[in-house]
Specification:
The complex is a heterotrimer of chains A (169), B (487) and C (642). Chain A has 169 residues and is an all-alpha fold. Chain A contains 7 helices and no strands. The radius of gyration of chain A is 21 Å and the shape is globular. Chain A starts with a helix and ends with a helix. By secondary structure, chain B is mainly alpha-helical. In chain B, 74% of the residues lie in helices and 1% in strands. Chain B has a two-stranded antiparallel ribbon. In chain B, a hairpin with a 4-residue loop joins strand 1 and strand 2. With 642 residues, chain C is mainly alpha-helical. The chains are: A mainly alpha (169), B mainly alpha (487), C mainly alpha (642). At the B-C interface, helix 6, helix 8, helix 9, helix 11 and helix 15 of B face strand 1, helix 26 and helix 28 of C.
């Protein structure tokens, strides 16, 4: 049953993403994105990455996208106004290049040129320890420093947001 | 491979980082608590300077020790300590040249200094990181701080524009770097540099396509930070728009940090597959030097000229990277230190010469400086000669070692191209000198307001430039000791 | 005492830095005292070092002071170190001694100049550089000093840069010297490639231990390249044209740099490398021939010049030619001996001419002088001593040194060298006395306005003149033929070949006992002949020169116009290069101006079209370059991996 679920979810998320691009109303766009994210979260579950699936739903769909929606509504973007296309001549080359990229990626996958390597934490090992436990343990041992340093990174981002967006100059 | 059991959680090892972070936040808080007017908050500079000095002393205490802390994620060795010294010196000198500048330009925010300290943390992480993740996080801390610093002067359009450009392109290039790291992880199953080396050794030094692609993308990501061609296009615009003191900072700090990471990744992780990347870097080096020097020839704005010159310097440094012998590592360390002094010195003088709102930045605005302010002109000449690589200055010795290391590894053609490039470079550096000495003043020079801070910065730069030029042996010896553990 | 050697260099450097950095705020007296004090201390230490060297037994008279390694990379070791041996100790005495006197003189001469502190800063810097040149213990450091004296010379020739002729002369000196320096630099590289060292001791030891046969091609090439540098710095054919123009600088500068010290650096360098030169007979022949030719050539030009300093300049070139002649025939001691005496009397003559110019409020044309001997008696008397010394009348200094060169040229070289030298000596005596007679004797042709202000120079100018006059009288006794103390003193440097004792004895046996004495008589007679002719022409029958000039119009014009060498050089070298560079400049300029006019966005200000096209200022374009670069790198990685 799992493969079918995968194909269904994958197809739905791609369709949602396409809707996201072609939809004119930004609120709908955001909602399609939420939909796509949730589909991806299911894919994570299928990969036995429950923790990431949960984080995906809680952080991306729950927090960030809701914030997005609020911002869109507060800004009240005029839906009707048609944007002028500054670079019309890029349209055709972009399509061609996108297609070429798709083909190249397909070929690369088909040729099995890019062979990954199984790392230290195989799915069996993860299962035996427990997914969340393992992440927690790694975050506070092997990856303690980057984890803590990320706090500085976020702090810097906050400073940036304040200083660059502060109303009074 | 060091034993896991000794890779303890050693908080003392990141003490300099903690001090910088602590002082950074202290500056923020004190700024808010103080009721003084913005232009009068001198203590912001004092406080951050104290932080830098303490951090420098603490990091000096580690000299000679080698340890891996945080479960092997953070390395302290002479190599990273040398870089820590360069970064802290860079931050200290930047604060010195900033104090009056930010007051003049009305951007004396606490955040200004905080961000300088935080970006220094990022640089230290890049130089000390023993795995790709740490290097990446360090790079992000450094970059984001600098994006903000560039846009600090919000009332000026060029500053905003520079910040946005740098941010967009920086984020773009970070994408490449992260993708590269992901591919490398996918291919090897590890992010630790040493483990990657072990993996490659296990494969008999042959890289599979996934790893090769990852390596190529890492080159792109870091190449952007060190302003290597063809990832350099942002440099002139951003350098020109950024507040001048920040331009000085970002011309040295990120470049040095980028090279620190570059060297560690490519000498430790990819050291055995030198033949797979040397040609790429070879081409990048030639491209970078030549582009930088040729375009610098026709610049009229001093900041843009120095921007292109900084691109060219990245090219010289890449030569040593290609050579990849022990001598080239010490040559890079030495050159970066020399570049720190001459570059910050030159920018300090640009700050002194320019007026409010960063006006008077054309090369023609330097005309006749020698008659009005002969000592400034002498100092500027010294820095420019050093950048041009004329003995007995630091720049000459640095170039000498870089080219010798290239010749030592058999890259004679590359060394010749480098020498030709430095000959070309002499022209545009001399243009400024000629303007200062051989032309009449084209404008009224304001009476000099040389604050003690910037004066000290200029003096330190002069001493550094001359000291490294005449007595290079000692520093070089330190630099040579700093490479032992790299391979 | 020898350990103090670094101090000799330190004092002038400090003096230069003090005057250069703070001179503007100092009083004139302080500036002068700082500069003179620095050189005075330096001279004092030099004397101490010299005494310290004398106290050692002759064979141990070499002392190396290694300060620090400058650049070390593989076998290449560029050290900063000094070498004190008889040759360099003699040179530092000359440089600091004569330099000290000239500094004192300058205090009077430059007193009213607004660039007073600049002048002394440069002058001290020059002394420092010259000392670096003579004291260095390796080729690279010597080259650093070599370039530094060139730079100071450039700065001092163009000291009055507001005057176009001065800045042009400075440029000319700079460019002509670059030609020579290029040769020198190549020579040093070749030395390193051949000997794997640039240290004097190592190179000369290797060379003298028979690794290289006499006439070795590499050694010949090295010595020729070094000689190219020497010819540039010491103003020999064909690179001499800058020196007469260099007289645009202040007169004490001409005395110090362009007569006593810097221009002799070439001779010093060849004497220093005597071991190498002795290995290449071909180069020696070249050196001797060029020296002899220059001696005659410059002397002949000196006959017809009317500018007092230019006559002295050509005379300097001619005397330098003698020194090269001496080196070329292997008589290095004689060359250095003449270098020393020449430093005394030529500095005296230049300073004397400076005193004359000072008295005449800046007049340099001898046709507007005359009859000055009673107005400025001290200058006249000292000048007379200098003139007699250069003309070669015993027992003045110039006699002994020139006589020794002529003798050596005869004994070791051939009759041609001797006869050229002797004829040049005749011309020298003639033009120097012509100068003396035209300036100090006869009727006064001085402008009446100027005449009112005629005055003897102040004491700080006359005292150096008197001291130098004394040295010009007694300076020669150190190198008296037969019992030459100088020969003995310098013999450790020049080994078995540099001094003339052995050859002299041999020569005596060959040519009869009285050869040295005979030569002395002959050269005295030659000198007297020249003086007599000058007396006839410029005192007795003053209409004679004019008649001769009319009679021999063509030779006169050629000599008067200095063989048109400047014009020829201009036509062959200077003008084509100038044309090309003007074209280039026009193109570049057009491009830059064009750029700034058309550059709508500030991003493209002043950039050429191609770069304007690339540096659009659009983020999307920059991102595109990144992508292109990335694709390029990815292709390379896979392609190279195949």
């Amino acid at each position: 049953m799992e493969p079918y679920l995968f194909y269904v979810m994958a197809a739905t998320s791609v369709v949602a993403a396409l809707y996201l691009i072609f939809e004119k109303n930004p609120v709908f766009c955001a909602l399609y994105l939420v939909f796509s994210f949730i589909n991806i979260a299911v894919l994570y579950v299928l990969l036995e990455a429950q923790f990431i699936a949960a984080v995906q739903v809680i952080v991306y769909t729950g927090a960030i996208m809701v914030l997005f929606l609020f911002v869109i509504m507060l800004l009240m973007v005029d839906v009707k106004k048609k944007q002028k296309d500054d670079l019309p001549f890029q349209r055709i080359p972009a399509m061609v290049m996108g297609f070429v990229l798709l083909v190249v990626m397909g070929l690369a996958i088909k040729s099995k040129l890019f062979q990954g390597r199984e790392g230290e934490y195989t799915s069996a090992k993860v299962e035996s320890i427990g997914h969340t436990q393992l992440i927690g343990k790694l975050l506070f041992t092997d990856y303690l420093l980057p984890f803590e340093m990320t706090s500085i990174l976020l702090f810097v981002a906050v400073i940036g947001a304040i200083i660059l967006a502060k109303r009074k100059v | 491979m060091p034993n896991t059991s000794i890779m303890t959680f050693n908080i003392l090892s990141i003490l300099p980082v903690l001090i910088l972070a602590g002082f950074g936040m202290m500056v923020l808080v004190v700024d808010v608590l103080s009721s003084r007017k913005m232009g009068e908050k001198n203590f912001l500079a004092y406080l951050s300077l104290i932080g830098v000095v303490i951090a420098a002393f603490l990091s000096k205490n580690f000299t000679g020790t080698t340890l891996f802390s945080f479960y092997g994620a953070y390395t302290i060795d002479n190599y990273s300590l040398f870089f820590q010294f360069v970064f802290l010196l860079c931050a200290g000198l930047t604060i010195l040249i900033s104090k009056n500048y930010v007051q003049r330009e009305n951007i004396n925010y606490g955040e200004y200094y905080t961000l300088i300290l935080f970006s220094t943390i990022g640089m230290i992480l890049m130089a000390s990181g023993a795995d790709l993740l740490n290097i990446f996080i360090g790079l992000e801390i450094m970059s984001i701080s600098i994006y903000i610093l560039v846009g600090m002067k919000r009332t000026r359009l060029t500053s905003n524009e520079a910040s946005l450009k740098y941010f967009l392109l920086g984020a773009f290039s970070t994408g490449f770097l992260l993708y590269g790291i992901a591919l490398v992880y996918g291919a090897t199953g590890t992010i630790s540099l040493r483990q990657i080396a072990v993996f490659i050794a296990g494969k008999g030094g042959v890289l599979d396509p996934l790893l090769l692609a990852g390596m190529g993308l890492i080159i792109v990501g870091i190449g952007f930070k060190i302003a290597s061609a063809p990832f350099h296009a942002w440099v002139p615009d951003v350098y020109e728009g950024a507040p001048t003191a920040i331009t000085a900072f970002m011309a040295v700090g990120p470049k040095a940090a980028g090279f620190a990471a570059f060297l560690r990744i490519f000498f430790i992780a990819f050291g055995q597959v030198h033949q797979d990347w040397e040609k790429i870097i070879w081409i990048l080096a030639v491209l970078t030097m030549t582009t930088g020097n040729i375009i610098a020839l026709i610049q009229t704005n001093i900041k843009r000229m120095l921007a292109y010159s900084s691109i060219a310097h990245a090219g010289y440094l890449l030569i040593a990277l290609v050579a990849a012998n022990n001598m080239s590592v010490s040559a890079i360390l030495f050159y970066l230190l020399a570049y720190l002094f001459m570059n910050i010195g030159a920018f300090a003088i640009v700050i002194v010469i320019s007026q409010k709102e960063d006006s008077f930045l054309k090369i023609s605005d330097f005309s006749g400086l020698a008659y009005k302010h002969p000592r400034l002109a002498i100092a500027m000449t010294l820095f420019l000669l050093s950048m041009a690589g004329i003995p007995p200055t630091a720049g000459f010795v640095g170039k000498f070692y870089i080219f010798s290391s290239a010749i030592k590894s058999g890259y004679v053609l590359l060394a010749i191209i480098g020498v030709i490039n430095s000959v070309i470079a002499v022209f545009y550096y001399l243009r400024v000198t000629v303007a200062m000495y051989m032309r009449g003043p084209e404008r009224e020079f304001q009476p000099l307001t040389l604050s003690p801070f910037i004066f000290v910065a200029i003096i330190i730069s002069i001493i550094g430039t001359i000291q490294l030029g005449i007595f290079p042996a000692k520093v070089l010896e330190i630099a040579q000791r700093s490479i032992l553990l790299l391979r | 005492m020898l350990n103090l050697v670094a101090l000799i260099l330190l004092f002038p450097l400090i003096g230069s830095a003090m005057n250069g950095l703070f001179g503007r705020r100092l009083r004139k007296e302080s500036i002068g005292y700082i500069a003179c004090g620095a050189i005075g201390l330096s001279f004092f230490i030099s004397v101490l070092v010299f005494i310290g060297l004398l106290l050692l037994p002759p064979e141990e008279r070499i002392f190396e002071k290694h300060l620090f390694s400058w650049i070390q990379s593989g076998s290449f070791n560029a050290a900063v170190g000094f070498q004190v041996d008889p040759l360099s100790s003699l040179m530092i005495l000359i440089v600091t001694g004569v330099g000290f006197l000239i500094h004192i003189y300058s205090m009077g001469y430059m007193h009213d100049d607004k660039g007073y502190h600049r002048y002394f800063s440069y002058l001290n810097l020059f002394t420092f550089s010259m000392l670096l040149l003579v004291l260095s213990n390796n080729f690279l450091l010597m080259f650093v000093g070599w370039e530094a004296v060139g730079l100071c010379s450039y700065l001092l020739i163009g000291f009055w840069f507001e005057k176009k002729s001065a800045s042009d002369a400075a440029k000319k000196a700079f460019v002509v010297n670059r030609v020579g320096d290029f040769g020198f630099a190549l020579g040093i590289m070749l030395i390193f490639l051949t000997f794997h060292s640039i240290d004097f001791t190592e190179v000369f030891n290797a060379a003298s231990h028979g690794e290289f046969a006499i006439g070795n091609i590499t050694i010949t090439l090295i010595t020729l390249l070094l000689f190219m540098g020497a010819a540039g710095k010491s103003a020999q054919i064909p690179l001499y044209t800058w020196l007469p123009d260099a007289m645009e600088g202040p007169t004490p500068v001409s005395a110090l740099i362009h007569a006593a010290t810097m221009v002799t650096a070439g001779v010093y360098m060849i004497a220093r490398c005597n071991v190498l030169y002795m290995l290449s007979p071909f180069t020696m022949t070249v050196v001797a021939s060029i020296g002899a030719t220059t001696a005659l050539f410059a002397a002949s030009i000196g006959l017809m010049q009317n500018d007092i300093k230019r006559v002295l300049a050509y005379s300097t070139i001619s005397q330098l030619g003698y020194m090269f002649l001496a080196c070329g025939v292997g008589a290095f001691t004689a060359g250095i001996f003449h270098l020393m005496t020449h430093a005394f009397f030529k500095a005296l003559l230049f300073l004397g001419s400076g005193s004359v110019i000072h008295a005449l409020s800046g007049e340099q044309d001898m046709r507007k002088m005359g009859g000055l001997k009673n107005h400025i008696p001290i200058t006249y008397k000292t000048f007379l001593i200098g003139t007699v010394a250069i003309a070669g009348i015993p027992p003045f200094a110039g006699f002994f040194s020139k006589d020794e060169i002529l003798l050596e040229a005869f004994v070791r070289g051939n009759v041609i060298y001797w006869s050229i030298g002797a004829f040049a000596a005749f011309l020298t005596a003639f033009y120097m006395f012509r100068l003396l007679f035209m300036t100090f004797h006869g009727e006064s042709r001085v402008d009446p306005h100027v005449k009112e202000h005629l005055h003897e120079s102040p004491r700080n100018m006359t005292i150096p003149l008197i001291i130098l006059a004394g040295l010009s009288i007694i300076g020669g006794f150190w190198g008296l033929p037969g019992a030459s103390a100088l020969n003995h003193f310098l013999s450790p440097v020049f080994g078995g070949h540099g001094h003339n004792e052995m050859h002299g004895v041999e020569a005596g046996a060959h040519h009869g006992i009285g050869l040295p004495s005979l030569m002395m008589v002959v050269s005295t007679l030659i000198a007297i002949g020249g003086i007599w002719l000058a007396y006839q022409m410029y005192v007795k029958k003053q209409e004679l020169p004019k008649k001769l000039a009319e009679r021999f119009a063509l030779p006169y014009r050629i000599l008067y116009n200095k063989y048109y060498v400047d014009e020829i050089y201009d036509a062959i070298f200077v003008n084509p290069v100038k044309k090309i560079s003007v074209q280039l400049w026009k193109k570049v300029d057009a491009m830059m101006i064009d750029g700034s006019v058309n550059g709508v966005a500030r991003f493209v200000t002043g950039t050429s079209n191609i770069f304007r096209f690339l540096q659009t200022g659009y983020v999307r374009n920059y991102a595109f370059y990144i992508v292109v670069g990335c694709i390029f790198i990815l292709i390379l990685t896979t392609w190279l991996n195949k």
